[in-house]
Design a protein that fits this description.
Blueprint: H1 9-17, E1 18-24, E2 30-32, E3 38-43, E4 48-52, E5 55-60, E6 62-65, E7 71-74, E8 79-85, H2 90-99, E9 104-106, H3 113-119, H4 129-144, H5 159-168, H6 176-182, H7 187-198, H8 202-219, H9 225-231, H10 237-248, H11 252-258, E10 259-262
Antiparallel strand pairs: 1-8, 1-10, 2-7, 3-6, 3-8, 4-5, 4-7, 6-9
Helix pairs in contact: 6-7, 8-9
Length: about 270
Amino acid sequence: MKLSVSADSLSRELQDCSISYIVKTMGQSVQMQNRYGFKIVVTLGDSFDSEINGYHHQAVKGFVIDRNVRHSCNSGEAMMFISLIEPASRWGRSLGILLSGREVCFIEELIAVEEIETILTHGLDTMGETVVAQRIQAFFMRVAEKFPALPPERMDDRMGPVISYIDQNLSKNIDLSEVANLAYLSSHRFRHLFTEQIGLPFTQYVIWQRLKKSIYAVASGEMTLGEAVEVFGFTDQAHFSNAFKKTFGVFPRAFLQTSHIVLQVCVEKE
């Protein structure tokens, strides 16, 4: 599902720093993983029950959840909108401040249920690309209205070449010591600086980028799953499948069969 791109900077950054998709649950409790960033989950229909770090919550419409928080959803055979957002991005930093140390923020705290149901309505997955794009962008812009003002933050100059190098060499084995040399740091110091600046450990960030590029390439029809596994630096299909399941809670083929990947959620405002 390829959608048009907006010139709006906040929307454009969201497109660059997230993976968004609409997925059909299969009538059973779904164990969800969240290792690589903040996650937004919203049901496209009735509310659902959820268990978050051992606590049961009933009649939930959706939530924003921090990474590495165990959670499951029991929503019957419903459609759900899910977005994973990189922690160091402007969106990720805003969500971190919004959570303020909490593991989860329920979506009803940010947007009235009636408005959520109007924007992310039942049957969204069957609508045309432009309508889907407009509604998803409208949802994110409403969430952004609740963001507190971000404090000034400037990324360490040494991170620019590092991020560019990773992005351009995903097909290769990316050695931490080699990348640390680009930043003129020891491996130990680089590891700490990278996590501090990017919000993810070095290895997890590289895996996240490989998964993101692979998903987009397959969803757009640019590559087959096998081609994406090879092009984006996974050792083999098993390596890719295991990394994918740790991120999304299901294996890639099952995910691609039940999900609509939103490649670009941004549209021009009228």
